[in-house]
Amino acid sequence: MMMLLLSGATPLAALSCDACDVNASLTGFTCRDPALPLELCPVGRYCTTATFDDGIPCQEATITDNYPRLYCEEGSKSYSVCPGGYICPNTTTKIQCAAGTFCAQGTNSTFECLSEWFQSAESRCPAGSSKEPARYDSVVITILAIVILVLVVESIVWCAGKFQEKQRERAELLHLEIKDMSFNIGKATVLSRLKAEFYQGELCGLMGESGSGKTTLLNVLGGRALYGKIQGRVNLNRRRYEPERIKLGFVPQAYLIFKELTVWENLWYAARHRVSLKTATTEAINELVMTVVELLGLTEVAHVVCDKNIGTHRLSGGQLRRVGIGIELVALPTVLLLDEPTSALDAVNTQLIMQVLQSLAARGVLVVASLHQPRFTVYELLDRLLVLRAGELIYAGQRSYTLDYLDMLGFVPAPHENPADFFIEVAL
Ligand SMILES: Nc1ncnc2c1ncn2[C@@H]1O[C@H](COP(=O)(O)OP(=O)(O)OP(=O)(O)O)[C@@H](O)[C@H]1O
Ligand SMILES: [Mg+2]
């Protein structure tokens, strides 16, 4: 008697075809010949009982025609639908669906799997796929589009904010602020913890005895104090002050002019090289130079050579000083720093230069000028005053408040005494 081992290691039953009759419930098996052992129901058929035949053909099932496709594998107990991931051309054949396609359950047709922009059709639908996985590219594209839209909107809002900020900055008056600023050359402290403010549209006088630090402070503000170390902060409109980023004019005590050139030529060449060459036409430069010449009261001597040894018409010291200032003015500075622009000049020339500076301040220039013992008439033209003594600040504030300030400290000037002289006396 033959024994049958079913799948797995354990014998399910020791059955021969002799048992078929008595074990009619044994499904999935067949006894084609009583002399042979019990067999698995053949492919393409199914066996409801282990009777003496080949089982029932798959297509005898009550399922209509070709759809869904049927397939009966070996040992089938009942008919079954062609499984997903396969095509079944007939009930005995089951072919795995190729990569890049998918085959639905019960069909004999393959369907093409679409690729996505980040995934090929083959990796989306490997061999034996029964359905196409959900598509993500449209979802990803939608998310990306939303992200890009959000970024674009954010950028527009940011740009609009920056634009408004710039507009505000443009509209805002220049405000130069020194905060606890010290300046050291080696171990020597030349300026010590200065606190002061300067405003656009104001003329500020810088006073103090010789060696008190006036030129040094101007050099710091002019970005020229590279020979020492600045500590503390200097701000322009609440941001770190960078002299090289603003239109800055600096008139040193020893100003430079080309003596072989006329007043007009000195200013014209300065303008030619300092005003943007892209925007300025020759006519525009001529007009600018003419305006500066008129402002400085140099019209009559515009075509006089600056060297006193050339020609008959000589320029005075005051006129030469104004040419030096003019060379800076043609660059249209917003901040103008001058180191002793009136020293060694007579009263008339001093007054002339100070009136020019006052008129520049009124036109929106932030003007700071160091002054050595200014006359009362000059002192009165100042909007703001800064007084130094040995690198320390004695006074920084409105000029009109100085006498009240001294009075508060118990210092009262004699009648008709020049407050500027009095202040320096007190400071000493
Ligand atoms: N390059 C330098 N090296 C060393 N010390 C310097 C330098 N420049 C200035 N000083 C010193 O710094 C101090 C201030 O000088 P500063 O020229 O600023 O004074 P000032 O008020 O302009 O004087 P004055 O009215 O004579 O022009 C002085 O004691 C001076 O000796
Ligand atoms: Mg000086």
From TrEMBL:
UniProt signal peptide: 1-19
Positions of the ABC transporter domain: 176-415
Gene Ontology molecular function terms on file: ATP binding; ATP hydrolysis activity; ATPase-coupled transmembrane transporter activity
TM regions (residue ranges): 139-160
Nucleotide-binding as UniProt keyword: yes
Record protein name field: ABC transporter domain-containing protein
Keyword Metal-binding among UniProt keywords: no
Membrane topology of the entry: Multi-pass membrane protein
PANTHER family found in the cross-reference section: ABC TRANSPORTER G FAMILY MEMBER 28, PROTEIN SCARLET
GO CC aspect terms: membrane
Pfam families per record: ABC_tran
